[in-house]
Structure formats: structure tokens, C-alpha cells
Amino acid sequence: MELLKSLYEVGWFLLLIVAGVGVLEGYFYTHFRFYDRKWFFPVLLSVVPLLFWGIFGNMLGGHTFALWLYFLLAEGLIAAFFRYIVKGQHTVPYMLIATAFVGLALLLVYPFVFEFYLSFHDLKLTTIMAWKETGQIPFVWFKQYVNVFTTSPLNDVSIWMLLWRTFLWTFTNVFFHVLGGFALALLLNNNIKGKGIYRTLLVIPWAMPQVVAVLAMRGEFHAENGFVNILLNRLVEWWPALANIGIGPVQWLSNYPLTTCTIINVWLGIPFMMVVILGGLQSISKSYYDAADIDGATYFQKLRYITLPLVKPVAMPAITLGTIWTFNNINVIYLVTGQAGGTEKADILVSAMYKAAFTYNRYSYSAAFAIVIFILLFSISVFYLHGLDAAKED
Can you list the domains of the chain with their CATH numbers? Predict the structure, then answer.
């Protein structure tokens, strides 16, 4: 019975998706095909707002007259756009991407808009029940944004320490990702036997599910049974003098959690950068190196004046993505340190924001925090893209 019930629910869900896609395609087909008919505006402005008002009214706060006006205004703008700008052009490609565009808008745009809305209100544990019963949240203007820069989301770490730690975490990881990836790509770009095998083995940490990789590496830093401390013990046994300079087993997870997270994340990120840079190296024509050999250039001169400038346009987008991923990488920190309110020694901005929302129930504060992080990342991305354009011009 449980199996049949599950199949029944899945069937209804699939039917709902098919029906939704059909309605969307019919909606856009009407706008593309009949944009020049006399009845286009009267029919759409009378039917579509009423239809959406009936379907989405309860979800958006009730079937109010103001909500119907919003739908009427939106449909008027959409219909005018199709009548005077689109004019039925490129119907097939637009129809093909229409449902995906609407799906992405619902999946990405709506949460972002709602988060922006929350950031100007005061939703927390003491107001959430009132919001559930009345639908009203206290409006506090820019108070949450002020709180982001004046109060800490955690108990023992200030917001400025979190910001500094996040930049240090991001720079260290991306630096070693690029350095390690570039070094491995240079090695694999040579004519060596078993190059395909090496490439496959090196890409495994990045290709496997991150949860599995992180938890596996976490075990290697265990205080007693971890491979890292076992190796340090063996080194001290072989060379006792190492103990005099402080080398020996370390309580990695409790005393150096951020360092542990950094080592693991570097190990995870190098393969991706290696693959990207290797693709760039293989696209460089050998004629450049042949000409440099004729001129008597050394290996490092060829590396500086040929390899680096030609790889830069390929590497810059990967570095931009790596910076954004690393800046927002809560997975490694959460899995290594067990972020259910545990140690704050390894927290960065995104993990602190996660705790503020789901441990301390400061939802509006976390929404404002997320908007600030978005602006930071957007600024960093613009900076890197500007550098990419400069690299292309060179």
C-alpha cells in the first residue's frame, strides 16, 4: 500500500508539472501568435489577471483587490511588451526556453526578492508566531543592515574577525588551488607514459561527492587514529630531533579547525583548477615554443612570456568561480567541525550566517547578512571580470 501511495503521489506531481508546462506554453503561444489581433488586449487583461488571482491568491496573502490590480498591471506590461517590442519574432526559440526561464525565476528570483523583503523586517523567534497568525512582520527599515556591521552573529567572534578570516580563507585556498593546479597541469602537459591514468586519479577528489571526500579526509586528521598524526609519530621516531622544534601529533580538529578545513579544501579544489589550466595549455600552439627555442629562450622565459599570458584568459574565469565557491563554501567547514553550534574557531561569514539563522533563529538579520555577502561577491566578480577583459586586450 505504501508503494502504491508513493507512486500515486509521484504520478500526481508529474501530472501537475506537465499541466503547468502546458499552461505556460499556451500562455506564451497566445502572446506570440495573436499579438496583433484586436481582441488581444481586452481578452488577456480580463482573463489572465482573474485566473492568476484565483490560483495564487491564497499563496500571496488572500484574494484581495490590490492583488488583482498587481496581476492586471503585470499582464498589461507583458502584453504591451509582446505587442510593441517582440512582435512575434523568434517564436520557436523563445517558446523552447520559456518554461525553463519561468522555472528558474521561481527558483532563484522569488527567494532573492523574499530575502530582500525580510532584510527590512524583524523576523525572529519571538515574532515568527505573530507572522504566522497575522501575516505581519515589524518593519525596521535599515536596522538589520546596521546590526550586520555592529553586532556579531556568533558569541565569541566579532563580525570584523569573521570578515578577515573569510578573506584569509578565500585567498589561501584559491592561491594553492591555482598554484597546485598549474604545477600538475604543467606536468601532465608533457609526453609521459600513463598520462590518462594520472589525470583520472588526480581528478577523483573533485569528481566524487563532496560529503564523502570531506568526511573521509576528516578521519585522516583524527587525534589518535588519523593518518596525519600516525605519520608525524613515525617521523618523530625516525628523527627524534624533530620533537625539539615542535613537530609531533596535533589535535587538529579541536586546536586547529580552520587549518584542517583549509588543507582539506585545497586538496578538493586543486583537481578542478588542474583540468581547466591543462585545457588552456593544450590549446597553445607549439610554434610559439619552437620560435622561442630558436631565439635561445630558457624554460622560465617561455613560462613567463608565452605560457602565463596565453593561459591567463582561460584561468581567470576559473579563478573567479573558485573565489565565489570558496567564499561561500560552508560544506567543508560544516562537515569538518560539526556546525550544529559547535566551535567558532573555523567559522567564516557564510557559516556564521547559517548559525545566526538556524541556531539562533535571527532570520531577518541573516537575510540582511546574505544581501551584504552577495554585494561583496558581486564586487569581487566585477573586479575579476575587469581583469579578464584586460587580459583579453593584452
Answer: 2-118 (no CATH), 145-393 (1.10.3720.10)
